[in-house]
User: Fold ABC transporter domain-containing protein from Streptomyces caatingaensis.
Amino acid sequence: MPAAAPPATPRARTVVARATALSKVYGHGETRVTALDSVSVEFHRAEFTAIMGPSGSGKSTLMHCMAGLDTVSSGSARIGDTELASLGDRQLTRLRRDKVGFVFQAFNLLPTLTALENITLPMDIAGRRPDPEWLGQIVTTLGLSGRLGHRPNQLSGGQQQRVAVARALTAKPEIIFADEPTGNLDSRSGAELLGFLAESVRALEQTVVMVTHDPVAASYADRVLFLADGRIVDELHRPTADAVLDRMRSLPGAHAPDPRS
Ligand SMILES: Nc1ncnc2c1ncn2[C@@H]1O[C@H](COP(=O)(O)OP(=O)(O)OP(=O)(O)O)[C@@H](O)[C@H]1O
Assistant:
């Protein structure tokens, strides 16, 4: 009889960021919108989470509140043990600089700097020196070794986006927030980028939270959170693109696909 596979060793699950009963209300009176309605969620070290949901379901608001880019109306958003609402503007800026990495659709690279200079810029501004071994590992993981002396206009869109990811990883942030990071890429470059993000989670134990509309992009994540009307209504682990698409179709506010198409 074949021996049973040994049980997977449970990994210590360090909570890197946490929302507790987080609500966000915009406007007053008739223009009042509840963008987030008592959301509680944890993000763990070395975990890749995708956030999906119909337009207006609160994805960006959740990311902005968790990243300290927007304030909460009630409840709490924490990074590590730090309650973001307890911080003043300067402390928040410092926390974002030291603990949070961002990857947006627009790469936001400086055209006059080389790829390497763009990667190390946030640390230069903070007066910190990148750990050369770590930087080397990131550059190798992202396949940028031969491109470090190039300026952004000498790089493809995919390579520019990888430089943006390297920039986010270099400061060893507690957590990286990515907003539609593949939105401007062709499907091959997008797949490459998502592969690298997933690799940074596996090989570098990075924590990544990504907002996306794309079920294929979400399938690179370890879990997918589904938002509808400001609430987390579903969660999928080890998702496939088809499973994500299925759940998306059943969400409140989702447009049911036309059976004739
Ligand atoms: N600054 C703001 N002022 C007023 N209402 C806002 C503001 N930002 C977002 N909202 C509203 O909050 C709700 C959630 O918006 P949010 O941008 O988080 O949704 P989303 O899921 O990211 O949408 P999309 O997929 O279209 O980007 C929406 O109804 C939106 O109109």
Notes: The radius of gyration is 19 Å. The longest helix spans residues 187-204. Helices lie at 59-66, 89-99, 115-125, 132-141, 157-170, 187-204, 215-218, 241-250.
